[in-house]
């Protein structure tokens, strides 16, 4: 595999996430690896897929309670929680 520059990797990652709904968990895994290799932080992009099964969220169940947002994965039922401000 050709080594990408950090800028190229960043572009590939943002392109990937602009079309996240059409991606597979396998592709998500690959892009995570790419980010890690280039020490790019995904930050909010990590909220676009389930951290357990890596399935991109598509109309997930979202609940917000006392500043905690819970998102339930429709595939594996894993609940991710984030603080909201
Ligand atoms: Zn899941």
Overview of the structural elements:
By secondary structure, the protein is an alpha+beta fold. It has one domain (6-83). It is built from 2 helices and 3 strands; from the N terminus they run H-H-E-E-E. It has helices spanning 6-18, 25-37, and strands at 61-65, 68-72, 79-83. It has a 3-stranded antiparallel β-sheet with strand order 1-2-3, with no helix packed on it. A hairpin with a 2-residue loop joins strand 1 (61-65) and strand 2 (68-72). The longest helix is centred in the N-terminal third of the chain and has 13 residues, at 6-18. The model has no long low-confidence stretch (mean pLDDT 94). Bound molecules: zinc ion. Zinc ion binds at residues 50, 52-53, 55, 73, 75-76, 78.
Distance between the termini: 41 Å
Q: In percent terms, what proportion of residues is strand?
A: 15-25%
Q: Please give the order of strands in the largest beta sheet.
A: 1-2-3
Number of helical runs? 2
Mean pLDDT: 94
Largest sheet: 3 strands, antiparallel
What is the β-strand count?
3
In N-to-C order, the SSE pattern is: HHEEE
State the domain count.
Answer: 1
The gyration radius over C-alpha positions equals 14 Å
